[in-house]
Amino acid sequence: GAVVSQHPSRVICKSGTSVKIECRSLDFQATTMFWYRQFPKQSLMLMATSNEGSKATYEQGVEKDKFLINHASLTLSTLTVTSAHPEDSSFYICSASVPYSNQPQHFGDGTRLSIL
Amino acid sequence: KNQVEQSPQSLIILEGKNCTLQCNYTVSPFSNLRWYKQDTGRGPVSLTIMTFSENTKSNGRYTATLDADTKQSSLHITASQLSDSASYICVVTGYNTDKLIFGTGTRLQVFP
């Protein structure tokens, strides 16, 4: 079945560091990928929609300069958290759906980001 | 406002018992409803997906029902196992959009 791979699974870094998270669709091409953020015991919150070959669409309240999204190919989207601070610590999850299918969105396994 | 509400917020059951989780939504127009299972520290995994014309969908010990008239869905877990301990999320998609509207989730704990 369709698989979405996310890397790294865990990042611990100092405040001020920029962190890049990769999301890959392993056996299908995804023109659209989604980036979510999840705080403990809360549901997923959509941050932005990543569109291959064009600019990402950000949800209200999400800083586009803080969370840079690049979707340069049909199988890869990246999220870069720039100059990360402790309040950016969270669980980041990406998803993608197989185009023109009735399949549900497939989620990556998430990236646990901890900023010290 | 499009919302998805789930109940109960948390549930504890003994291994082998059955349980039912509830989902109410206000999303309109409606395209489909999905139930996902999310283990701690992992991404959600799809259990079932139903369109407005489907009333029930099964996946092993998981059976989802949908009443599009009352905008309610349930997920029934039969003969629970320890590995069923997870968060179960009801997700609704509106018509003509890829965006998912997530419920708040039900945290299920199965004890031996």
Would you mind describing this structure in some detail?
The complex is a heterodimer of chains A (116) and B (112). Chain A is mainly β. Chain A has no helices and 11 strands. Chain A has strands at 4-7, 10-13, 19-25, 32-38, 45-51, 57-58, 67-73, 76-81, 90-96, 106-107, 111-115. In chain A, strands 2, 4, 5, 6, 9, 10 and 11 form a 7-stranded mixed sheet that branches. Chain A has a 4-stranded antiparallel sheet with strand order 1-3-8-7, with no helix packed on it. In chain B, the strands form 2 sheets. In chain B, strands 2, 4, 5, 9, 10 and 11 form a 6-stranded mixed sheet that branches. A 5-stranded antiparallel sheet of chain B has the order 1-3-8-7-6, with no helix packed on it. In chain B, a hairpin with a 2-residue loop joins strand 6 (56-59) and strand 7 (62-67). By secondary structure, chain B is mostly beta strands. Chain B is globular, with a radius of gyration of 13 Å. Chain B is built from no helices and 11 strands. The mean pLDDT of chain B is 93. The termini of chain B are far apart. The A-B interface holds A 4, 6, 32, 34, 41-46, 49, 91, 93, 95, 97, 102-110, 112 and B 34, 36, 41-46, 49, 89, 98-100, 102-105, 107.
What's the structural blueprint in terms of helices and strands?
The complex is a heterodimer of chains A (116) and B (112).
Chain A: E1 4-7, E2 10-13, E3 19-25, E4 32-38, E5 45-51, E6 57-58, E7 67-73, E8 76-81, E9 90-96, E10 106-107, E11 111-115
Parallel strand pairs in A: 2-11
Antiparallel strand pairs in A: 1-3, 3-8, 4-5, 4-9, 5-6, 7-8, 9-10, 9-11
Chain B: E1 4-7, E2 10-14, E3 19-25, E4 30-38, E5 45-51, E6 56-59, E7 62-67, E8 72-77, E9 86-94, E10 100-102, E11 106-111
Parallel strand pairs in B: 2-11
Antiparallel strand pairs in B: 1-3, 3-8, 4-5, 4-9, 6-7, 7-8, 9-10, 9-11
